[in-house]
User: Fold these one by one.
Assistant:
Number 1:
Amino acid sequence: MSPSRHGEEASDAPGHAAAPADIRPFRKLMAANRSEIAIRIFRAATELHLRTVAIYAQEDRFAMHRFKADEAYLVGQGKGPVAAYLDIEGIVATAQEKGVDAIHPGYGFLSENAQFARACGAAGIVFIGPRPELLEMMGDKTAARALAQRIGVAVLPGTEEPLTDRDAALKAAKQIGFPLIIKAAFGGGGRGMRVVHKSGELADLLDEAQAEAERAFGNAAVFIEKYIPNAKHLEVQILGDQHGNVIHLHERDCSVQRRHQKVIEVAPSFGLPKTVIRELCNAAARMAREIRYDNAGTIEFLYDLDTNEWFCI
């Protein structure tokens, strides 16, 4: 969060100067997420003296995050424990009704959904995240691949467009070669991902990946990429402002994973040449600068331990 936008208290708070006329301080923050993710948001918001609002599915009515917020409201009744958190219309309507100033989406669910960001803006609510047009550009993983290629950042062999049917997937798989990995095109966090070692596995694993992507992100589109079995998973944190300035906050090693989800993050990374680390960080900043990114974000890379090559993913 930018302290000038997200961290100021109301202008009548003791010991605080009045906010500039063009800045509306936040008073009430909603977390459009659940469980540990929402609890972390509430903790930070409480430290900033903001009132917190939770949403919960019927199935999560006894979940801890509901009781950690100042207010909590049921959303998506009858939609199920995942679809409830994808109910854009219901979530935004609840936020409007309850006087919410800003919505933090956490990660997963609607965090990379441009439609949700636009709906928040149309309702006069600040979406704490990238602009909708940036979400469309970078939330679509195939579009992000195209951006990397355009500015000379290496990517793994893969499909240029999201896939929705088996025939297209099989054709692409034959061109890329096995092993390969199926990834959700419009989501992250390890959801909608399957490793395919031979052609006979592709159909079933494609169905599994699409079904999981649909449940987690409300979009079943996937893409296929070459799988590197012996690799380090590296991430570079970037920060951009609204004046075109971008910096990186160096790298972290996220190679210890379970089901494609990070278990341990190590910063700084270890066992890599300093030149590689410098190249990764500079590439991440260059990508963010290219699209005038004005938020906090993460750009991910793979370092192939067998070939000593690195790729943006």
Number 2:
Amino acid sequence: MDLPVTQPLTESLLASRQTSALTLLLRGLRKAFGDVVAVAGIDLDVASGECFGLLGPNGAGKTTTIEICEGLTPPDAGTVQILGLDWQHNATALRQRIGIQLQETQFPDKLSVEETLRLFRSFFRRGIAADEAIRIAQLDEKRNARVGTLSGGQKQRLAMAAALVGDPELLFLDEPTTGLDPQARRHLWDLVDELKKSGRTVILTTHYMDEAERLCDRVAIMDHGRIIALGTPQQLIASIGGDHIVEFAVSGHGALDPQRFTAIAGVQSHRVDAGLHQLSVINLHSTVPQIFAAIGALGLELTEFRTHSATLEDVFVALTGRNLRDE
């Protein structure tokens, strides 16, 4: 695939970096914990320089898949190649070439931000200076602050900086913004944008679909241990057939036949979730008046009505019949 040409943050970030057409290759990946199948036969490729999102609800298998890729969890079956290497024969080399931010990282509370990053930098033969990691993570004002005094968002940025000090070619970010307030989430998004511009390969897991749309070149949606959709955010949104989602609720005693709405020109699909009707439509300006007319003809009264542009959340609903956070 053609990847965007970007400018590095600094020359040191890309110095001596080896690139290949494929950074991650998974074939037939499986993992079970007792009777629970967490990963059920995944095939996946991630190109060099790509920001790839692995999406799905809690329990979908995202974190298990990433932990296998990171060498933290052994698979039951399948092939895993990272940067052309495998964990069985090249573990030491791989640890020097990847960066990992876990869902939650525990740092010593009494160390300062700078001390923490100097410690992590000592684990790698090559990398960037702690000062550079502090600058990238926008933690200059907290350089001498003890970790125990940092906010949740600041600790997440520190975890990102710790993942960067080895100057990784491949960076794993496992739900990096879970539990953060909106402002802290935006700060992390800006940081991921900077990492993308540096030419790194980033693999991001999240259950925030807006985050994936904002950051990822391609995404795979997981459910029950399988990949159920794969493509660019735009391709997946286009796959549900409509540019917009119309949602409404009605009251009254008239019968509401779904075919009454799917027969309207421009309506691609109809479903009902807890009394809320959801229509995927192409042209709002021509379709909405017809929806109003159909509701009125049935003697029903609108109690709710709203529209929004189709999103990856709507793709998940169309594929599974339920909302992302139902579980």
Number 3:
Amino acid sequence: MASRDRTARVAVLGTSVQRSRNERRPPRGRNAQLRRLILVGLVLAALALLTISFRSPTSGALHDAQGYGASALRPFEVAAQRVARPFRDAYGYVSGLTGAKAENAKLRREIRELRAQATANEAAASRAAELSALLRFEQGRSYPKDFRPVNTTVISFPAGPFAQQVTIAAGTHQGLALNTPVVTADGLIGRVTNVGPTTAQVTLLNDPDSAVPSVDVTHHVVGLIRHGPRGTLIMDRVAKEQVIEKDDVVVTRGTVDKRYPDFYPYGVPIGKVQQVGRSDIATYLTVEVAPYARFDSLDAVAALVPTNRK
């Protein structure tokens, strides 16, 4: 009898416990549906308020309520601004100080770089002076400051196409000597190769035996000016690695070392680069130079006599 009563009692207790759990936990589907309804209601209410705010007159009840709300919140806004102002000022000060420090560091770096560059330039100049002294470098005379012109005229012209010499009406009586440069108002035409008391023979630049040391003043390229085709001159001995371009100005190179003086002073205009050619089989560039002087219409010329013979 005791075991039967205990079994009935356990069955009753189990039934009661299971019923209480079902009563405390409502179905999950009902809670989710309730949350959706609340969300939809809030969205509809927000849309309704926005619609009323846009469509109602400026003096409507809703606008009045908004004005009252703004007036009520104004003291809090002012207080918030006053509280935030020191932080904004501190941020601006720190930001400006950081920017000033960065700018100062940049300027200091630029000053250091410029100082280093200036020092390097001074060292290079000093080294150049020492090397010039060691090599006995001498620029020599320069045109036109170290010369006086002896103005004269051409009295005879070339006898044939292969011998380009002219005779001028000035000689040793006027100070001319062998290798005296002769120019026109446009540029160099040649040098004196035979001189008498009152006349002199001038070999022109377009003579096949003429060779004039020259320099491209634009790119500092050196070469030899020789006779070229079609009334042009050739700047010879220009390596392929050199940079030389059309319209570069070419002048006489002048004396570089006093042990090897040049016939021509530095800076006498010769011509302008007309064309630059390259060839895979050639050692040098083919540089055509258009002379400034007109060799086919020579009339008035000037012989350059040094003002102080060295």
